[in-house]
Structure formats: structure tokens, C-alpha cells
Here is the input.
Amino acid sequence: MTDIVLRSGAWRARLLPEAGGLIAALTCDDVPVLRSMPPGTTDPLAAACFPMVPWCNRIGAGRFGWEGRVVALAPNFPPERHAIHGHGWQSPWQVESHSAEACTLIHRHDGAAPGWPWAYEARQTVALTDTACRIALTLTNRSDRLMPGGIGLHPYLRRRPESRVTFAAESVIEVGADMLPTGTMRPADRFADFARGAPLPEATVDHCFTGWAGQAHVRDDLGTITVAAEGAQHLHLYAPEAPDILCLEPVNHAPDAANTGAMPLCEPGETIGLTLRIATA
Here is the structure.
């Protein structure tokens, strides 16, 4: 399996294109910025970061209506009955270009296979500088009709007992036991006062924050990690009871948006994009 290592200054990144377009590790001065995958592992759920395309989070029961027909997607995260995180994270990506500091990966779907009935092309570029890592993800509609288009990134940031998370948002989407939106919005401080900076609660948080200001900070005894995104209107926070998992996911739509009518739309030939910059101090 292809293993690509990028370097710039004190920054290092390791990529596993064929395992789902994964970032397997991201460090600065040999200090983990994102968690590192165990050696020999290719499971995306153990990755440092994976791309979400052509939808993010869950589509309820893997089904939604579109132009008078039902689109049926196979559940891809058993035993959960929903379709989750798209196709990209479970598909091989090809290397389109590669230098010492940057790599562009590409993933194509022809629309003919059962499931997502639109052809699309996704590109992911991971680029290091001496001061940061930048991840750019794009989705191009290669079909001849309007396509719902979801993109996002799923980074697993370093989490330590001292970690405090800071970000500004307008509200948080309430979800039910099935992890789908109930239709109720809650105040953004529903779980903690993240606007002022707060430790993570002991109970699992797996919720989407709307009206996100586009930036977040994670502070701990090793320093501060800053994530800043463009093209992402929402931030999904996943912080389970497991003490080493913290995901701040920039996404362009809320969970189950295909069924609520809130999915972004992509015209034939149109490209939509999202970028994430990760820096430390």
C-alpha cells in the first residue's frame, strides 16, 4: 500500500491514499497535532483525518427522495442502519501529483454503481508549510443533472486531560437516540461554554453546531492547536467518553440534510470546495 510522507520545516504528515484518502499522522516538532494511526492499521476510524464526500454524517436509513424517486444507499457502518460519511473514506484514492511538501489525491465515482446515482470527482490536497498544514477538498459534479453535494473533513485532534476547546457558533442541532436531528435547535452552550473556552464534558457529544464562526482552538499542556476553515457553515463536534478522541469536523451541511431539504446543490460541471488550515502555537 502506498505510504506518502510530506515534510516542511518542523511539520510532517503521512498519507495512505489507497485506504480512503487518509491522513495517517500529522506532527510538528515531533509532537502529535492529530492522533497517529497505529502501525499496520488501515481502518479509517483509526486515522488522523479522513475526507467526507459526497455527503457528511448520516443519511437516515440510507434513503432520501430526489426528483420523484427514492435514492437508496447501503448502510456502511454496521450495525447502524444509516449511511454515514459518504463514499470517499471507504474508497481508494489515486495520487494525482506529489512533491516533498504537498500531495493531491483524486477519487472518482461513475454513478453507475448501486447507490449514489450521480457521477462525481473529488480531489484532496494536503500541503505543508513551515507554519501549518492546509487540506483542500473539492467535489465536482460529473453528471448531467443537479446533484446534492456534501463535503467535509473528519480530523481527530490531539486530546489530553488538560484539553480546552474554544469556538463560536449560533446554535446546536438536537438529535434523538437514532442520532438524527429532531428539528429542535438548542443554544450553542448546551454542553459547555465553548465560546469562552471549556473542557469537554464527560458524556459523549456528537452534535452539529450551526452558524460556526469558522475557527476553533484546542489548548492543552503541549500548546494550542488552531483550526480554521472556509466553505464550512457548520462544525460537528465528536467527543465520546473515550479520553483520546476529539473531532472538530468542518462540514457544509447538517446531519440528514438530504431528507430535510438543506443539502447544498451542485450543478452539472460545478465544483464546490472546502479548506481547513491547522496550525500550532
About this structure: The mean pLDDT is 96. The longest helix spans residues 257-260. The radius of gyration is 18 Å.
